[in-house]
Design a protein that fits this description.
Distance between the termini: 101 Å
Oligomer: single chain
Largest sheet: 10 strands, mixed
CATH architecture of the largest domain: 3-Layer(aba) Sandwich
Number of domains: 4
CATH superfamily of the largest domain: P-loop containing nucleotide triphosphate hydrolases
Number of helices: 16
Bound molecules: adenosine-5'-diphosphate
Number of strands: 26
Shape: globular
Length: about 575
């Protein structure tokens, strides 16, 4: 392998004189401690390297050795349920957020292996040849790696094996032998191969009405969630992690301050999986970066995260990755670029910010795996724009590559309206793809109702502007009713506390019931006001209070009560109409 000697060091970046060729993105070992680095560029015999560890003890003259392979991580059964740094090196616990220098991957663990093939079977890339069935935690598949295939020569007997031990020997049709272990390495910047991309056709149900009803993300889709400090990004990401219909959660945390990340490291292991009552961590992988870790590891962390997500996707699982926040990742990119002396583009970020974001978000997809299963990776990236300014480069560029845009609004958060997504600035490009799924779920009216709600909210904004000029009382009754209805949609439907026992999660069936009930109210109220019933009469109906509180009061187990509520809507309006008729007659 090639060797080089350090000529000078600038924080996480160093330059070295090479005696031999280095490849771009080649992984290198540096100095006596064999620190981990990656070649960024090579000009003649000078190579530039970013270092994934603290460079304080390095000196000019120290050796840099090539490894001949790109930066890669060790993927295997042991990664589920654990906390790592940006290069998938295990963090020892909640107190220590440091990794020993020169450690490249987790210590290999031992796992109960059960073969699924026998000698002479033909296996192709991505086929499941074994299963890991731990007493606790999730069953995982062992897959034939993408580059191997052929006839099984030998397979390990059922029992406990080290994850790096050979458990399968193959001979391919050129007569070459392949030794396969439960775990293998994969270069983080290279998407893992798939059979084919499939259509976006199923929503990733999140349990949050604002998303599922108005701005749904597809399984295998992408979403950007920008929001200033205190607007609820972290609470929302945690609600998504807990409730979204994914088999595996990958959480990439890039904290601004050390303590922000230690909060996550402390809190996440305590979160309970609401569906099983077991720790949520058992089906999660956490990748944590704090500001005191080297910036280069933070730059790599989102690619490491998506590589881990793809690894589980390849087992036919649905994976949701949350990155909080990608702004911290972009700052790492900016810092490294600055050290390289590159010409800064907008906001000081390098010109390749956009292409790097694209390389991340393009790896989201629903797929048919090499093994013929269906899996998906959904990517949800929080962005924390300085000063809450959504025109800054990271927000703008992220928006280009994500299909859903979920901006958090400072005014809504300030008035403690959560989730604080702004319903008029948010959008989802997945709606048309997902409407057929809702029709199959016995909610054929989903699309019409969501458009009705959004229409009301848009109209509300226009009318509020007008009301500020002419006064609310001088608006015609139909417009006053629109304001009342929009307020009801906000309060009864969009507001959803992450901390309320009943309301923190809404199933598709409960959401459908709530939308039907509100839809009926809107029909009846509009007809009544058209027929001359005063808006105040509608406003003072005892029903209003029950509608506003239906999310808090009617749980998943008692959906029939929404039908009762709908009947009550009819009864009360029937009564109002009768009174009105009687008055007219009198
Ligand atoms: P950020 O991560 O954007 O700085 P947080 O997620 O920490 O903001 O939210 C700030 C506070 O807002 C939380 O401590 C909580 O009190 C409140 N909050 C945010 N989202 C919700 C929610 N969905 N339901 C109820 N309260 C919320």
């Amino acid at each position: 392998m090639s060797e080089a000697a350090i000529s000078h060091i600038r924080g996480p970046v160093l330059h070295a004189q090479a005696q031999g060729p280095f490849a771009i993105n080649e992984s290198v070992r540096i100095g006596r401690d064999e620190l981990l680095g990656e070649v960024l560029s090579a000009h003649g015999d000078e190579v530039t390297v970013q270092v994934y560890e603290d460079t304080t003890n390095l000196r000019p003259g120290d050796p840099v050795s090539g490894t001949g392979t790109p930066l890669a991580v060790q993927l295997g059964p042991g990664i589920l349920g654990r906390i790592f740094d940006g290069l998938l090196r295990p963090l020892s616990g909640t107190d220590s957020d440091f990794v020993q220098p020169g450690i490249y991957s987790a210590q290999p663990g031992e796992f109960p292996f059960e073969p699924l093939v026998t000698a002479e079977d033909q296996v192709s890339p991505g086929a499941a040849f074994g299963r890991i069935d731990p007493e606790e935690g999730r069953t995982q598949d062992c897959l034939v790696p993408p580059e191997a295939s052929g006839e099984v020569i030998a397979v390990a007997a059922p029992g406990t094996h080290r994850e790096d031990a050979t458990v399968l020997r193959l001979r391919d049709n050129q007569g070459r032998e392949h030794a396969v272990a439960m775990s293998h390495t994969w270069p983080v910047r290279k998407p893992r191969p798939i059979g084919r991309r499939t259509e976006l056709e199923r929503p990733l149900i999140t349990g949050q009405r604002l998303f599922d009803a108005l701005f749904p993300v597809a399984r295998g889709g992408t979403a950007a969630m920008p929001g200033g400090f205190g607007t609820g990004k972290t609470v929302l990401q945690q609600s998504l992690a807990k409730w979204c219909e994914a088999d595996v959660i990958v959480y990439v945390g890039c904290g601004e301050r050390g303590n922000e990340m230690s909060e996550v490291l402390h809190e996440f292991p305590q979160l309970e999986d609401p569906r099983t009552g077991r720790p949520l961590l058992e089906r999660s992988v956490i990748i944590a970066n704090t500001s005191n870790m080297p910036v280069a590891a933070r730059e790599a962390s989102i690619y490491t995260g998506v590589t881990v997500a793809e690894y589980f996707r390849d087992q036919g699982l649905h994976v949701a990755l949350m990155a909080d926040s990608t702004s911290r990742w972009a700052e790492a990119l900016r810092e490294i670029s600055g050290r390289l002396g590159e010409l800064p583009a907008e906001g000081g970020y390098p010109a390749y910010l956009a292409s790097r974001l694209a390389e991340f978000y393009e790896r989201a997809a629903p797929v048919e795996t090499l093994g013929g299963d269906n899996g998906s990776v959904t990517l949800i990236g929080a962005v924390s724009p300085p000063g809450g300014d959504f025109s800054e480069p990271v927000t703008v560029q992220t928006k280009r590559f994500t299909r859903c845009f979920w901006p958090l609004d400072r005014d809504r958060a300030r008035s403690r309206f959560f989730p604080a997504i702004h319903p008029l600035q948010a959008y989802s490009e997945d709606v048309a793809d997902l409407a057929p799924w809702w029709r199959q779920q016995e909610h054929p009216e989903w699309d019409r109702q969501r458009r009705r709600f959004l229409g009301l909210l848009e109209e509300e904004q226009r009318l509020q502007r007008m009301a500020r000029i002419v006064g609310k009382a001088s608006l015609p009754p139909q417009q006053q009713l629109t304001l009342l209805c929009a307020e009801l949609v906000n309060e009864a439907f969009l507001r959803q506390s992450a901390f309320d026992e009943v309301d923190r999660y809404t199933s598709p069936a409960r959401q459908a019931a709530m939308m039907q009930t509100l839809d009926r109210f809107l029909d009846r109220a509009q007809k009544a006001v058209q027929a001359g019933v005063p808006v105040d009469r509608v406003k003072n109906l005892s029903l209003m209070r029950r509608l506003r509180r239906m999310g808090l009061e009617i749980g998943e187990e008692e959906l029939g009560r929404f039908d009762e509520l709908t009947r009550q809507v009819d009864d009360e309006f029937d009564r109002v109409n009768q009174e009105e008729d009687a008055q007219d007659a009198g």
